[in-house]
Amino acid sequence: MESNSNQSKQQSNPAPAVNNNRTLLWVILCLAVIIVGLAIWFIVASTSQKKQLQEAIALKEQAELDMAQKELQNDYDALNNEFAIFENSRQLVMDDSVKLDLTQKYETARLQIEKLQQELKNQKHKSSAEIKKLKDEISTLRDLLRHYVEEINRLNQENEKLRTENAEVKSRNEQLNSQVRETSRRNEVLQERMTLAEKLNVTGVNLVALNKKGKVEKKVQKATQLRVTFTIPQNNSTPVGEKTIYLRIVSPSGQVLGGGGSFSFEGASVPCSAKKVVEYAGEEIGGVTIYWDVNTALTAGSYTVELFADNYRLCSNRFELK
Fold first, then answer.
1. Which residue of 7, 188, 307, 321 is surrounded by the most CB atoms within 10 Å?
2. Do 136 and 251 lie in a common domain?
3. Alpha helix (H) ranges present in the chain?
């Protein structure tokens, strides 16, 4: 009996050892998980810091390129000012062959600058190599322009003496030309006054829309006729006789309301809306009326009435039709 009890105790003793092994295993696993987690966190943190550092470096480099780009634009502006100075100086050169040569070189340089400006405008970001290339080209162009200006100044100095000698001759010629121009101008004014005095005049021009009963129509869309009335005042300078008066009515869309054929005006054939022949005896003719039969759809708006006679435009008036 005692022997069986001792045997039972011997069989139950290994349990604490097994539990201790399991606890140790769990501890090792937990430590492993912690170590792996710390390693992963360290890797992620290191990668993030490296990325931030790279972004900071890229931003710094971009800022430097942007500053260089602004400086490049300033260089362009300065070069353009030199172009303007060159252009002003170039106008003083009297030698046509020299002027042609300088002009060709100037245009070549100007086109090159426009090309560089277009590159600067089209490319939002540039590399340092591109910016250096553009700066070098600007420097080359600037040196070229300065050479042109120096050449022009030299030519101007050589021509100064000749310009001085010619000044008196030019002055005398200008005085003669001025007298001739003044005499010619006076003759033209006299001729124009005489011509205008003969022009047939019209006053009281009016435009209304009529319906099929010949009554005034308020809505132009319903009109069957347009009526133009005016007065020809007395003018003793106008040659008497039969006068053909041509009417042009221009719609709000800019189209001539046709149907009246055409007439000659200032050497061209001009379409008209209608025409009327009157006998002018130098006295006032009141209530002259010209009708235009509607042959197209009309819209409300601003209509222009033009009257022509004897190769003159007698009037050009606007009327609002609703």
1. 307
2. no
3. 2-12, 15-90, 96-122, 128-197
Residue range of the domain that includes 242: 203-321
Q: Are residues 211 and 170 in the same domain?
A: no
Give the tokens for residue 176.
């003669």
Residues 188 and 294 in one domain: no
Give residue 42's identity as a one-letter amino acid code.
Answer: F
Residues 45 and 181 in one domain: yes
Annotate 251-289 with DSSP letters as a single string: -TTS-B---S-EEEETTEEEE-SEEEEEEE-SS-EEEEE
54 and 181 housed in the same domain: yes
Same domain, 291 and 163: no
Cα–Cα distance for residue pair 187/198, rounded to 1 Å: 17
Angle between helices 96-122 and 128-197 (to 10 degrees): 120
Mapped onto helix, strand or coil, the DSSP state of residue 239 is coil
- C-alpha–C-alpha distance, residues 237 and 232, integer Å: 13
Q: Give CA–CA dist 24/19, Å, rounded.
A: 9
Q: What is the pLDDT along the chain (322 residues), one digit of tens a residue?
A: 444 555 544 455 555 666 677 787 787 878 877 887 777 777 766 677 777 777 777 677 667 776 776 777 777 677 777 666 666 655 555 456 666 776 677 677 777 767 776 776 676 666 777 777 777 777 777 777 777 777 777 777 776 777 777 777 677 767 767 765 754 555 454 344 334 446 888 899 999 999 998 899 999 999 999 999 999 998 877 788 899 999 999 999 999 998 889 999 888 999 999 999 999 988 899 999 999 999 889 999 999 999 998 888 988 999 999 9
Same domain, 282 and 210: yes
Residue 220 to residue 298: CA distance in whole angstroms:
6
